[in-house]
Every structure is written in structure tokens, then in C-alpha cells.
Amino acid sequence: MVTSTEKNHLRIDASIVSVAEELKLEIEELREIVQSAKDKLRRLRIEFKNDLNIDRSIYTGYNSIIYSGLIYSGLIFDDNELVKKGISGVDGLFKRRFGDVLNRREDLEGLIEDYAFFVSSLINCYTASLDSSYLEKAEEVVNVALREFYRSGKFMEKEGVVTIYDLSYRSPLSQMIENLTALGVLGGDYKSKYLEIAEKLLKKYAGMDHGLFDAGYLLALQTYLNPILIETDEAELHRLRKYINHNTFFKEGKGSICVGEKCVIAGNYEEMEPILERELNVKT
């Protein structure tokens, strides 16, 4: 039959034949009625389209996820235009949204998810560009997040403790743990406050029942336990950026690759690529 939901959504739940029989109408007559209703709705939509209450806000966290996706895609598929778009977007957010605190939108202070996904996008900008200023910016934003949200070994918001579980998108807490690990590894300080906080948080949630909504936690755990640190000259690092991953880190330095605590001397692309393919389970 023809029904409406909250008197604003006209739809047909059954076949037009059964509806015509129920209403004792000819099929063509029913078609005309339905078409007339659609025409009226279309005219009203056009008439009132400028009065619709459309949320045109640009949210920092959600946009950061998109920009990180552009950078990942650009590096993996060797599309420099995508990388440029991602970096440009992150640069714009940093300029417009970050001051004493990070804003979620122009008129609203950020939530922990805005901080978590924005810091991740800054780290991805570093991976793509090897410009250390992005790591400095990431540390600056993380330090504000710690000041604003970290209390007694937990990340807190007004609603209470930030959940470790993924919902419709990744848990910002697991993303923040991953960010802290990344900054510690790339900073070369394995006793840094960032790694200490990451370890405490991972241990805190290790005893919980884990299952369907814990992919983010497991990614953060792998990043902490099994980081892959690639150190070589800038030219070689640019060739290896396609291996961007949540637990791969790129740094100018001696020719070596470390997987967790195990390091091997590897001075160039040809020596490092087989190791990365094996550890990441990929084939290029």
C-alpha cells in the first residue's frame, strides 16, 4: 500500500497491482495519482530549496580523514596530484583551525577526534614530503590534546572517557595512540613521553573483551609492537614512500631498516623492498 513516514516520505511498499486492488482503482488511474503526487513534491522542492537547513560546516576531523586518504592513494598509486591535494588540504586546516586550541569548525572547539585525525594527517604529510616541519606541527597539536583531554591516564571529554571501540569510523583514541607511537619512533626517543603514554593506554585496554569493534586498537597495538623504521637518504625514501602504512616510518639517516627491535643494514631500494613486501604482505 501507499504509506508515509512522519508524513514527509511517500513510498509504495507493495506492488502497484496489489495496491490498485486494495484501493479498488484501475492500475492506470493509480499510476496517474502517484505521478501527480511526485510532480507536486518536485514543485515544492524547487520552491523551497533555498530554505533548506543544510549543514555546510567543514569539520576538521572528517576532512583530515579524507586528506589522509588522498595522500595514501597518491603515494601508493604514484599520483602526485592526489598527494598535493591532500597536503594542501591539511595546510589549509592548520592555518584556519589551529591556534591555542584546534577548532572543529570555525565557531566550535575541537573534540578528541578532531585532534586525533588531524595529527594523523600531519604525520602523513611528513611521510609524503619528508618535511620535518609537519612533525613539529603534529607534536604541537598533540601537546595541546594532552593538555586539554588527558587526565589520570585516560583521554576524557565532557561525556566521559573516550571509547577505544570503533563505531561508524575508527576510534579516535586508538588513532591517538598510533599518533603518539609514530611521534616517539620518528623522534628517535624510545623513552619519550609519547611512547610512555601509548604504552599505558594499550595496557589499560589489553584486558578487555575484544572483537568486531577493535580493528583500530589492533592497528595501534601492531604499530607499537612492530614498527617498521626505514632510514636512508632522501632519494631512496622518496622511492619507498609507496609502502606507506600505519606502522611504516620514514627517516633520513643511515641505511637500515628496523622491524620492531630487529635491524638490518640495507642501503638502497633494492635491499629494502623485499623486506617491506614480506612484512606488509604486499607485492608490487
Give the helices and strands, then pairings.
Blueprint: E1 2-4, E2 10-12, H1 16-23, H2 27-48, H3 60-76, H4 80-97, E3 103-105, E4 108-109, H5 112-129, H6 133-149, E5 150-151, E6 154-157, E7 160-161, H7 172-187, H8 193-206, H9 215-225, E8 228-232, H10 234-240, E9 248-252, E10 256-259, E11 262-265, H11 269-280
Parallel strand pairs: 8-9
Antiparallel strand pairs: 1-2, 3-4, 5-6, 6-7, 8-10, 10-11
Structure overview:
- With 284 residues, the chain is of the alpha+beta class.
- It has three domains: 50 residues, no CATH class; 166 residues, Glycosyltransferase, CATH 1.50.10.20; 52 residues, no CATH class.
- It has eleven helices and eleven strands.
- The chain has a four-stranded mixed sheet with strand order 9-8-10-11, sandwiched between helices. The chain has a three-stranded antiparallel sheet with strand order 5-6-7.
- Helix 5 packs antiparallel against helix 6, helix 7 runs antiparallel to helix 8 and helix 7 runs parallel beside helix 9.
- It is elongated.
- The model has no long low-confidence stretch (mean pLDDT 91).
